[in-house]
Amino acid sequence: MKTVTGLFDNYDDASDAVGELEAIGVPRGDISIVANNSTGWYDDSNRSDAAEDAAGGAGLGAVIGGAGGLLTGLGLMAIPGVGPVVAAGWLAATAVGAVGGAVVGGAAGGIVGALTDSGVPERDAHVYAEGVRRGGTLVTTKVNDELVDEAERILGQSNSVDLEERRRAYEAGGWTRFDADADPYVDIEAERDRIRNTSPL
Q: Which InterPro entries has this protein been placed in (predicted)?
């Protein structure tokens, strides 16, 4: 299996990508989504009992099996350095496990460690984690060899973030790597950063 990852500035685009992955036959249990929730777009009125269990430390495994699909089982939690997120799937469960004390590959912390442990190069994992910190949504999937090309097409579509361009933009501002000890962006900062990154040059 190969891990394929895409970063989106817009949650709806990420959600569409999840639907496309499911449509080509990727099992729900092999897809993860982690979305910044610093603006509070997802709140308690959206929560299911399974999401409550996940946010309370039970993990996200039970959330995935909901009859309405992966996205109906979103749970609220906090990831160090990112802040409040809405998440579902194996990556989120692994990142939460890292936060809860389990050893996950990579000393950088929950989300970076979970990504690198699944085969994402550490250099890229830092950009993905920073992208979520700055208001984005990360979709990660494990796929069999026969679905790799389709998964890469779906997660590399025009609505997704060009990882190298985003890395250069972050580095131009003095960023070097994701810092799990950094203060999360506040609502206004995350929204301002998202608008700046999606505006045409």
A: Low_temp-induced_all0457 (IPR052948)
